[in-house]
Amino acid sequence: YGLYDYLRNSIQQLELPQRKAALIVPAFETLHYRLTFPKSKAELLSMLDMGSLYTFRYHVWPKGHAPTDYAKWRTATVPYRVSWQPDFEPYVVVRRDCPRYDQRFVGFGWNKVSHIMELDAQEYELLVLPNAFMIHMPHAPSFDISKFRLSAGYRGCLQTLREEFHQDLSRRYGAAALKYLTAERS
After folding, report:
1. Angle of helix 152-173 relative to helix 178-185, nearest 10 degrees?
2. Which domain of life is it from (predicted)?
3. Contact of 6 with 112, CB cutoff 8 Å
4. Directed axis angle between helix 143-150 and helix 152-173, to 10°?
5. In what order do the strands lie in the sheet with 21-25?
6. Beta-carbon neighbour count of residue 98 at 10 Å?
């Protein structure tokens, strides 16, 4: 409730049109198909503490959202900066002229990860909004995630595309892009 207005105000207050920043909207999830959506951060924290909400994908892919620093978010009252980490794939609000998603990554796998890497390579600030949140609702697995899980060929193609993406980052950003390749190999 009120996310749109909050985002508009944050964009103005943080002067987003004049700076390279990605506003991170912390993501949570429920395992229930029905949910009374929290009307405030306080309500969300209560639901989190009661176990009816969880940090997004905590049980299957914690690396994807861990850099959001949910412990800090609980008490944050102002936006705070986080650093890129491997496999980080938050939901973000960015300027219209930001880098586009890489079209190689369609279907399941690496679309948000590669986008955040590109933003980081271009030195975008990653700012977590203290009063924004979204909740992922359960749904049936997509056709593409099923293909990813069942097909070694699909996974192999995705790995090839990831390697090409790293090479392209290295060509565009030089030594600054080495951290992505190093992180991938670690």
Report:
1. 150
2. Eukaryota
3. no
4. 100
5. 80-82, 125-128, 21-25, 91-93
6. 17
State the DSSP string of 7-50.
HHHHHHHTTGGGS-EEEEE-EEE-SSS-----SSHHHHHHHHHH
CB 92 within 8 Å of CB 25 = yes
The DSSP letter of residue 81 is: E
Residue 55: what residue type?
T
Phi, then psi, of 21 in degrees rounded to 5: -145, 145
Bridge partner list, 92: 24
Give whole-number Cα distances, 175 to 117, 167, 171, in Å: 14, 11, 9
- How wide is the angle at C-alpha 146 spanned by C-alphas 62 and 31, nearest 5°? 45
Tell me the three state secondary structure of residue 23: strand
pLDDT in tens, the chain (186 residues): 899 999 999 999 999 989 999 999 999 999 888 889 999 999 999 999 999 999 998 888 889 999 999 999 999 999 999 999 999 999 999 999 999 999 999 888 889 999 999 999 999 999 999 999 999 988 788 888 888 888 999 999 999 999 999 999 999 998 878 788 776 665
What are the structure tokens assigned to 183, written together?
Answer: 């992180």
CB 7 within 8 A of CB 130: no
